[in-house]
Amino acid sequence: MADDIDWAALQEAATEAMRHAYAPYSGYRVGAAGVTADGRTLVGCNVENAGYGVTLCAECGLVSQLHITGGGLLTHFVCVNGDGAVIMPCGRCRQLLWENGGAALQVMTPLGVRPMTEVLPQAFGPDDLAKEGTR
């Protein structure tokens, strides 16, 4: 699956999204880009505010765009810093990506393309909520 995507173009889309980040407090700008199963390219950037705990990650913006434009599953994803270098999503965002791409989501990492099963091993997801005793 990783061979059928133009990772350089996806990284450039994330870099362009990063240029629109609003990071006046930390100065740490982040951009994200992903591709859906039906071929849409989605982007997001981080948006800070004075209450750091409620800052929106780039991945949040991307997933919001996923749902606004028709939903579906992410198949490929990359996240970059202010220099355009590939970075890893934070833990909260890894969970968000799992729920919107699943185990098969391919993620560009600083060590190359990895499936979500390696990015978030032993993930908790919607299937776990359906198991007896969890409600």
Automatic annotation (TrEMBL):
Pinpoint the CMP/dCMP-type deaminase domain residues. Answer: 5-127
CDD domains found in the cross-reference section: cytidine_deaminase
Entry's InterPro entries?
CMP_dCMP_dom, Cyt/Deoxycyt_deaminase, Cytidine_deaminase-like
Q: Which Gene3D superfamilies match?
A: Cytidine Deaminase, domain 2
Name of the top EC class for this enzyme: hydrolase
Query: What's the EC number here?
Result: 3.5.4.5
Matching Pfam families, A to Z?
dCMP_cyt_deam_1
One GO MF term attached to the UniProt entry: cytidine deaminase activity
Highest taxon of the source? Bacteria
UniProt keyword list: Hydrolase
Name the protein family. Answer: Belongs to the cytidine and deoxycytidylate deaminase family.
PANTHER family per record: CYTIDINE DEAMINASE
User: How is this protein named in the record?
Assistant: Cytidine deaminase
Species of origin reads Nocardioides oceani
